Structures are given as C-alpha cells and as structure tokens.
C-alpha cells in the first residue's frame, strides 16, 4: 500500500465543507463553560487492499453526544476511514470497531490488524525488543469491502465528557453501551449513511459492549445491523472467571485452552500430531467426564476420581500431585504459573505462547501477564507515531491508550437504578444478543477465538453462544493459533481478515 497524505486540515473542526476552526466554540447557556467545536484532522490516502486500489479519507476527530437541549455532553473521538468517490446509489458498508477493557482505546484492533497500517511484532511470541518498532502497510485489511470507524469510548483515547458532565456518567455496563449506540446513530446521521450496511466489531469487553449496543440499535433506535464480529468473545463472565474457587463452569470452559497451552509448550505426552483433534478430545473430556466429577464433589467414587485425575494430568501437563492438591480444580490463572514452574517461567494469560521470567518462582499466580508486557509498548509507540506522521494529529490532549485513572474504580456493572434492590451476578449480555437476533432475522454473528487465550477461552464462546436461546445456525465460529489478540500471530492475522471479509460479503450480498 502506498500512502499519499494530503493535508485537508491540521486542526479543523469539520462540521461542514466550510467548517469553523478548532478555536471556535459551540454556544452554551449563559453562565456555563463554552465547549470548543469538534476537532477533526482530515487527510486523504491511496492504498492497495486485497489486490485493488482504494482512494480513501481518514478522519481522526470528535463527534459530540448532546443532551435534550442540544448541548454537548461528551466527545467521542474516532478514526474513520471512508472510501472516496463512491458511485451514486452504491450502499457502501461501514463497520464500527472498538476494543474492550472496560477502559481500553481501540489501538489494538486499529494498529494490530484492521487498520490500513499496522505495527509489526514477532509472530512467534518473541519479545519485540526496544524501539524503533516497524509500522508497515496492511494490504490484507478489509477497506476494499467496508469503511471502518474505530471508536474510543469516553475516558479512553481522546474521548472525554464535556461541559458540566462528568466522565463517570458514561462508565458502566449500560451507560457505556448507551453512549456508543448514541454515537453510532449520530455518526450515521451526520454522514448520511442511513442506508449503508452496518457491522459491529468488538474485542474482549468490546464484545460485551457490542451485544448490548446491538440490542439498543435494533430495539430502541430502529437502526438495523447486517452483522456482528466478536473477537475473543466475553458475553457471560461465568465462563471466563477462573479465580473463583466454587465456579465450576470456569473449570470446564478453561480446560481446552489449558490443553492447547500444554500441547504448545510440549508438556503433553504422548503429544498428538493434530492440535484440533486433541482439542476435540479435551472438549469431550471437559463436558462428559470433568463436569460430572466436579458436580459430584465428595460423593465421587475413588476409582472415578483417579481416572479423572490421570486424564487431567495428560491434558494439562501438570503433575498428579498438583492436581490432587487442587482437588481436580485446576484454576486457569494458576495454571499459567504452574505449567513451566520447573523452568522458572510463567506463560501468558492473554496469549499462552508467551513466557516471562518472574521474580517470585513460588507464587501461586503470575505477577503480571507475559503477553501484555511483551507487546504493549510496541502497540502504544506505533499508534502515537502513526497519529503524528500519517494522520497528522497535532493536539495538546493526551491520548489515553489505557483508560482514565478514575475509570476502573468508578465503573458500574450494576444494571438497575441505585434505589432498586439488586443482587450482584456474573456480567451477562448474551441475553441482549439473543434479543437482537430475534428482532432481526437476517443478523448473523462471526466469532473469532484464539486457541491460546487464557482470558476469554474459546470453549467459553461455544458454551455461552450455544445457549441463551441463540440458534446455532446464526453463529459462525472461527479458530486461530494465537491468543486474545490472535492477530499478533501472522497466519492468524491473515486468516482473521479473510474470514471477516468473507463474512461482510456474505451479509451484504443481495438476496
């Protein structure tokens, strides 16, 4: 891809072809603090994607969410890549993409796989080393079939609350989803895209968000969708919460991923040639043998207990003594510390292919995450350099790759008003997805999972989406030899992009 950047504006607020400069302000009520007009940085580019050239505009800028009086209450900053000179009457698809956290900016999807440029990190889970990090063209990405809008929710990236409003008004399971749905409605309206095919693409908590956003769009805002892409699905947290001892479901959903990690690191003996066939056996063992054994508890017969223990030894690569002491309950995060303990190494949680040499070799859990420690600096550095050099963003506002420091402690998972009784439970937006799918019979979901993901295990995606009254024929599963960000593995990145492209084409084909 050859980038040709033409400066339309360095600090323009593009409200119209003759939009005001960023220094202008939006009129506010008497006595209130003026809010500057939306700031947008617009450049033009030409790139080769999937074998063909695309002329497109990159708009890095704010979209305002407004209150009932029309006053700005929040700025949602996005990176929009839109094809130029679309023929009259052609309905060009648009895909809204975001990462998770909660409290993550969209730089992972943006700079890892779906953006027109990407950071290069070692595909084999080696540490990328110190800067400089290579930022390279990404001709495999999907700009040939869809426009892309990378969304940073309030408190991440450049997105902020405005005026008299506080960021914590947007920090919550429902509050966050409502603001993102409102942003999509506003962006589509301002850009005249009401007849464009529309897709949502979320990663990790971004899938939690996407399910609820889909429900709001379909059922409240009457804004239909063509498809949803889940990267590292996390809808029902029971299956991705391994650190609660009495959560039997997580012991089941994590077992196949632990087996994949043990296979990768050569701890399965004898080691099957086919990972996929090995994981089919792991799934069957988890549901047909391990689950009944854990359910029986202290009524489990000794012979059956010994048989299940020995099978766990084979699938996990751990010692019989450890599994006995764990009472057959191999906790997913402790597994990351235990698998290579004899070598003084911990494996990654986000991607079990990574390893780190931690200081405390006697701890039960990893002190950090080997995958996160390896790649975060490269992604953040590449993003900031890309903003400066290619998108020509010149702004004195700090880009929050990780969230506002106040976000985590102020995040609300409570789903009812404060004056109503509420019993805490596992986060679960799968019911929202089920409702959206029932509202829109043409809506389908693509689920992309990494085999080595110890944060959102691939078997949990199957467990979650195969129930909650979701029809099996509405879900397409795809698997990759990577982790949570499977796209840092080059074969996985290429396959993920091609699977996404095929899904978008399928969902936009005329019936």
Question: How does this model look, in words?
Answer:
The chain contains 13 helices and 17 strands. By secondary structure, it is of the alpha/beta class. It folds into two domains: 6-237 and 377-413 and 424-508, 3-Layer(aba) Sandwich (Rossmann fold); 245-371, no CATH class. Helix 3 (205-219) links the parallel strand 12 and strand 13.
Keywords for this structure?
511 residues; alpha/beta; Rossmann fold; 2 domains; eleven-stranded mixed β-sheet; two-stranded antiparallel sheet; 17 strands; globular; disordered N terminus
Strand content: 15-25%
Helix/strand/pairing class, anyone? alpha/beta
Task: Supply Rg.
Answer: 24 Å
Shape descriptor reads globular
CATH architecture of the largest domain: 3-Layer(aba) Sandwich
Count of β-strands: 17
* Number of domain modules: 2
CATH topology assignment of the largest domain: Rossmann fold
Terminal-residue CA separation: 33 Å
Residue share in helix: 25-40%
The CATH superfamily of the largest domain bears the name Alpha/Beta hydrolase fold, catalytic domain
Instruction: Encode the helix/strand succession as letters.
Output: EEEEEEEHEEEEHEHEHHHHHEEHHHEHEH
User: Low-confidence spans: pLDDT under 50, at least 5 residues?
Assistant: 1-31
What's the short version?
This protein is an alpha/beta fold and 511 residues long. It contains 13 helices and 17 strands. It has helices at residues 107-114, 173-190, 205-219, 248-264, 275-296, 302-316, 320-325, 332-338, 370-389, 407-410, 430-439, 458-465, 490-508; strands at 6-12, 25-26, 35-36, 40-49, 52-66, 72-83, 94-98, 117-119, 135-137, 147-152, 160-161, 198-203, 227-231, 346-347, 355-356, 444-450, 475-480.
């Amino acid at each position: 891809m050859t980038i040709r950047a033409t400066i339309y504006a360095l600090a323009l607020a593009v409200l119209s072809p003759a939009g005001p400069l960023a220094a202008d302000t939006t009129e506010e009520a008497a006595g209130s603090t003026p809010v500057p007009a939306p700031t947008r940085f617009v450049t033009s580019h030409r790139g080769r994607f999937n074998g063909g050239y695309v002329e497109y505009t990159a708009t890095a800028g704010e979209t305002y969410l407004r209150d009932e009086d029309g006053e700005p209450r929040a700025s949602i900053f996005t990176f929009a890549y839109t094809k130029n000179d679309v023929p009259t009457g052609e309905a060009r698809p648009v895909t809204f993409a975001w990462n998770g956290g909660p409290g993550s900016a969209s730089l992972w999807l943006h700079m890892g796989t779906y953006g027109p440029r990407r950071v290069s990190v070692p595909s084999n889970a080696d540490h990328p080393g110190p800067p400089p990090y290579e930022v390279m063209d990404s001709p495999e990405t999907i700009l040939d079939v869809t426009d892309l809008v990378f969304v940073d929710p309030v408190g991440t990236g450049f997105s902020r609350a405005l005026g008299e409003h506080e960021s914590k008004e947007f920090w919550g399971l429902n509050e966050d989803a409502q603001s993102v749905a409102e942003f999509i409605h506003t962006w589509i309206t301002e850009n005249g895209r009401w007849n464009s095919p529309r897709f949502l693409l979320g990663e990790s908590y971004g899938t939690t968000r996407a399910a609820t956003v889909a429900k709001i769009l379909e059922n409240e805002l009457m804004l239909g969708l063509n498809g949803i892409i889940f990267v590292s699905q996390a809808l029902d947290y029971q299956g991705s919460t391994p650190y609660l001892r009495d959560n039997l479901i997580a012991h089941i959903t994590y077992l196949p991923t632990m087996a994949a990690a043990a296979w990768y690191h050569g701890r399965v003996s004898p080691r099957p040639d086919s990972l996929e066939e090995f994981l089919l056996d792991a799934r069957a063992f988890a549901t047909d043998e391990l689950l009944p054994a854990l359910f029986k508890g202290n009524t489990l017969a000794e012979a059956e207990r010994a048989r299940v223990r020995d099978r766990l030894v084979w699938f996990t690569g751990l010692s019989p003594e450890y599994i006995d002491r764990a009472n057959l309950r191999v906790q997913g995060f402790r597994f990351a510390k235990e698998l290579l303990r004899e070598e003084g190494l911990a494996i990654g949680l986000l991607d079990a292919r990574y390893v780190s040499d931690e200081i405390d070799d006697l701890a039960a859990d990893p002190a950090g995450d080997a995958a996160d420690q390896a790649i975060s600096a490269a992604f953040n550095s590449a993003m900031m350099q890309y903003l400066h050099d290619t998108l020509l963003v010149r702004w004195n506002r700090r880009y929050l790759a990780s969230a506002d420091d106040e976000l985590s402690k102020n995040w609300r998972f409570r789903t009812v008003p404060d004056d109503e009784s509420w019993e805490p439970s596992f986060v679960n937006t799968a019911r929202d997805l089920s409702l959206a799918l029932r509202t829109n019979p043409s809506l389908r979901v693509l689920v992309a999972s990494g085999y080595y993901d110890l944060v959102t295990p691939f078997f949990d995606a199957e467990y979650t989406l195969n129930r909650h009254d979701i029809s099996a024929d509405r879900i397409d599963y795809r698997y990759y030899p990577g982790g949570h960000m499977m796209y840092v593995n080059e074969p996985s990145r290429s396959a993920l992009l091609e699977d996404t492209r095929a899904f978008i084409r399928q969902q936009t084909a005329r019936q």
